[in-house]
Amino acid sequence: MKEQKTNFETAIVHAGYDSREHHDSLTVPLYQTSTFTFGTAEEGERRFAGDSCGNIYSRLGNPTVRVLEERMAELEHGEGALAFGSGMAAVSAVLIHLTKAGDHVLCSRGVYGCTFGLLEMMEEKYNITHDLVSMKTEEEIEKHIRPETVCIYVETPINPTMEIVNLQAAAAVAERHGLKMVVDNTFCSPYLQNPLLLGADFVLHSATKYLNGHGDVIAGVLIGRDKPEMENLRMTVQKDVGGIISPFDAWLILRGLKTLPVRMDRHTDNAERVLEFLKEHKAVQTIYYPLDEENVQVETARQQMRRGGGLISFEIEGGRKEAQVFMNALSLIKIAVSLGDAETLIQHPATMTHAVVPEEQRSAMGISDSLLRLSVGLEHADDILRDLDQAFKQLKTDLQQA
Ligand code: MET
After folding, report:
1. Ligand 1, from 337, 345, 347, 365: best to mutate by most atoms within 8 Å of Cβ?
2. Of residues 109, 180, 209, 307, which has the active-site annotation?
3. Ligand 1 midpoint to CA 113 (Å)
4. 28 is in which domain, residue-wise?
């Protein structure tokens, strides 16, 4: 694995870019072009044959996108990275790369609803089966491995229950059985957690979230520990399936990325204030936050995460109706799926991000009808708390009147 040459905060501003190669432009230029010209027919032939390294066509590579990929590889301590048009394009690319008909994927007990949908589709159409299991210890993981298992796929913290997967335990099992391990690191960003350093083979992100951080891009990134394997993935799955990112979106992410450490620290500071507030509130039944002292998994979370991050899930007294009344009473906090933006967002997983998961499996994942997921933004913490407080008061009044 590549040793990080500079500190994280420096690499995130500079890695993968040399202004001398781009007319001395301080910032990464936007190469908003679909294709590149060849000086001669023979040069075109050489580029297609891989004998000359020039650009060909933006589905096969683009200079702006390449800076984002190299930067992400460095930040996640990988050897190569590919940027995609969405987080799900990154998820599907790595699963297409790792599996064939008849294989089995061992998956964490919970995953994002569309990842669950993709796994179900792969099972139905291609007989690539999967199991969703708790992954707190090696023993728990070990007992679900089958002869046809080819990879362990995890989210940690899990969307939206914030359950922690023990990455070192999962990596130990993967190594024993020669399996590839993939980690969705979207909730943490590379600033808070680096799964490749804990034994994973691939790490992926919905770059829509903290990486971009400004709510104006849909994108994904996949980082791997093996350079030839990542180049192979680029020239097979990514080229032929085609879920590439646009140069402009890559440029926007490069712009947003520079402030990631500053933003993540503020998101976490604000989330810690929200955590304390929710703990004091009678209408809140359960709270899920990785670095909450009362979390039974706090030790594992501490070992693999630098700080707790900006997401908090909580159950309020009641069910779906109460959850919806509470959300409708919010004013500053916006009702929206997505996370990692400057704006504080709230969503109801049972009817939104995880609505595609059948009810029985949703409860097995720990998603109840009263569960809400809050992505704590960058506003002043006092204003976020004031909005939550007035919504709880409103909920009480509405319920008394009903
Ligand atoms: C289309 S639903 C969700 C988007 C995003 N993955 C989230 O968890 O909020």
Report:
1. 337
2. 209
3. 8
4. 8-257
Alpha helices in 281-319 (DSSP H): 298-304
Q: Which of 103, 184, 292, 369 is catalytic?
A: 184
Q: Is 306 a catalytic residue?
A: no
The CATH code of the domain that includes 231 is 3.40.640.10
Using DSSP's 3-state secondary structure scheme, residue 183 falls into strand
Is the Cβ atom of 31 under 6 angstroms away from ligand 1? no
The Cα-based distances of 224 to 12, 94, 107, 157, 163 in angstroms read: 18, 10, 19, 20, 24
Q: Is 115 in the pocket of ligand 1 (CB under 6 A)?
A: no
Tens of pLDDT along 46-77? 999 999 999 999 999 999 999 999 999 999 99
Tens-place pLDDT, residues 82-137: 999 999 999 999 999 999 999 999 999 999 999 999 999 999 999 999 999 999 99
Confidence of residue 3 (pLDDT cuts 50, 70, 90): low
Kindly state whether residues 200 and 303 are assigned to the same domain.
Answer: no
Q: Is residue 274 part of a domain?
A: yes
Structure tokens at 400: 């008394």
231 and 355 share a domain?
no
The pLDDT of residue 2 is 52
Which residue from 268, 171, 227, 211 is spatially nearest to 87, judged by alpha carbons?
211
User: Is residue 191 annotated as a catalytic residue, yes or no?
Assistant: no
